[in-house]
Amino acid sequence: MLNQERAQTFSETSFPKPGSFFYNFTDSSALVSPRIPSFLLLSVKKGVFSCSLSSSKLSISAKEGDLILFSPGALPLIVEGTEYHALFFPAQILQSSLCDDADVNCLSPLSDSAHSWHFIISSGSDAYYEYMEIADKLYSLRNTVDAVSSLQIRSLLLHFFVLLLNDSLFSAIRESHLAPVLPDEIQTVLSYIDSHFTEPIRIRDLAALCYLSETYLIDFFHQQTGTTLVEYITKARIREACRLLTFTDLSITEIAYGSGFRNLSNFNRYFKKATGVTPSSYRKQSHHSK
Predict the structure, then answer these.
(1) How far apart are CA 117 and CA 32, in angstroms?
(2) H or E segment and range at residue 128
(3) pLDDT digit string, tens, across residues 71-83
(4) What is the spatial distance between Cα 192 and Cα 81, in angstroms, rounded to a whole number?
(5) How many CA atoms lie within 13 A of 205 on its CB side?
(6) How far, in Å, CA of 260 to CA of 241, rounded?
(7) pLDDT for res 18
(8) What is the pLDDT of residue 162?
(9) Domain locations in the chain?
(10) Which residues, 6 or more positions from 286, have their beta carbon under 8 angstroms from its beta carbon?
(11) In degrees rounded to 5, what are phi and psi of residue 95?
(12) 240 vs 54, 198, 235, 281, CA distance in Å?
């Protein structure tokens, strides 16, 4: 049985901490969910796994050798009669600070706790052995604390989700539980920003594009994308600056204005906030890695 002291310690842990993305329970009596939105990847090692979901009365069964991925809105409440490895990881570990198209259209919808889903990966699933290899590697890294291992964990998780998004069986879940990804008004705004971020963009002009008030658009955009309009525009400009720093010899000033910023000091400040380094340092690092 999972003793009360252990359960209490887990539920009160600040989550995540460096090197603490994963928690292992081989005990079958209970799972204690982390406080922030988190996925659960569960690998059935022996017997038949059975549970109920926190989001519904639905019961789930899986057999030895199966993997089950639970969305943040569908974590299991009761676990019975098996041995398993359980790996929790926070949704934000998958997301880029630049909030690119992959975040908005692929990862954020999967991470949204408002959408409840689970996916069983069995031997008949696409890329089953690749899934299993990744799960085993993640489990082996569960107690690591160094930065390189944290990077490897993130890389493995992203690979896992690429497999998932290309899985023909998972596509049915995306269509029934996660589509449409974004309303037409938001898609219109995103498309306009992606095409005009190097120009001055006013919120009132974006609101006029989709016949909404400025106040409503600001709230609606944040609700649908998880980021603000200003943040999305800034990140689009930072992505362009990263591209120009890597693939051109333009000066920092030229890149600042060419990516949509109208003030060099603001560009330097926002760039370092987004990437952790100055534009000059980013250029040196990108050239060194070529």
Answers:
(1) 18
(2) helix 128-140
(3) 876 767 656 656 7
(4) 53
(5) 9
(6) 9
(7) 29
(8) 92
(9) 4-178, 184-289
(10) 242, 245, 246
(11) -95, 145
(12) 42, 9, 9, 16
Q: Which two tokens stand for residue 131?
A: 């899934």
**Architecture of 184-289 per CATH?**
Orthogonal Bundle (1.10)
Provide CB contacts within 8 A for 103, sequence distance 6+. 95, 96
Identify the pLDDT of residue 13: 33
Please report how many Cα atoms fall inside a 13 Å half-sphere around the Cα of residue 141, on the Cβ side. Answer: 24
Model confidence pLDDT, tens digit, residues 11-30: 333 323 323 334 333 333 34
**Angle value at C-alpha 98, between 162 and 134, nearest 5 degrees:** 25
Counting beta carbons within 10 angstroms of the beta carbon of residue 263, is it exposed (0 to 12), middle (13 to 18) or buried (19 or more)?
A: exposed
Q: Where are the alpha helices (DSSP H) in 166-211?
A: 170-173, 184-196, 203-209
Model-level pTM?
0.58
* CA–CA distance, 15 with 258 (Å, rounded to integer): 40
Nearest to 161 by CA among 191, 119, 113: 119
Are 81 and 51 in contact by the 8 Å Cβ rule? The answer is no
What CATH code would you report for 4-178?
A: 2.60.120
Q: Which two tokens stand for residue 184?
A: 């037409």
Residue where the block lists tokens 């539980």: 177
Structure-token pair, residue 134: 């990744």
**Phi and psi (nearest 5°) for 48?**
-115, 125
Check: CB of residue 141 under 8 Å from CB of residue 154.
no
